Amino acid sequence: MTEDQTVLALAALAHPQRLRAFRALVVAGPEGLTPSVLADHLGVARNALSFHLKELAHAGLVTVEQQGRNLIYRADFPRMNGLLGYLTEHCCQGGICEVSTNEAGCQTC
């Protein structure tokens, strides 16, 4: 992940609604969620959520797939892990770090 991509991703997450939406998509896992289900879950208006999902997609943090008449949004786990990797690349002053990846593909300490 480049510095520019990292800044774009962090900027997208620097809004409470987008952060909540992204976290909900992470919890939903690979199945993802439709915007209506996500809006109901978060208690936000669907049109406002649409704007936030577009920002997350523009930053590469979520993917969107058309399934029939529905859009399915999913957290982009490789991109999320790339962001975490960029942020922790030089942790522990270059020594061996205790960061590992769990079965869902998420990095844990």
UniProtKB/TrEMBL annotation:
The keyword Transcription applies. Residues 1-95 form the HTH arsR-type domain. CDD domains: HTH_ARSR (cd00090). Signal peptide: none annotated. Pfam families: HTH_20 (PF12840). Keywords: DNA-binding, Transcription, Transcription regulation. GO terms for molecular function: DNA binding; DNA-binding transcription factor activity. The keyword Transcription regulation applies. This is Transcriptional regulator.
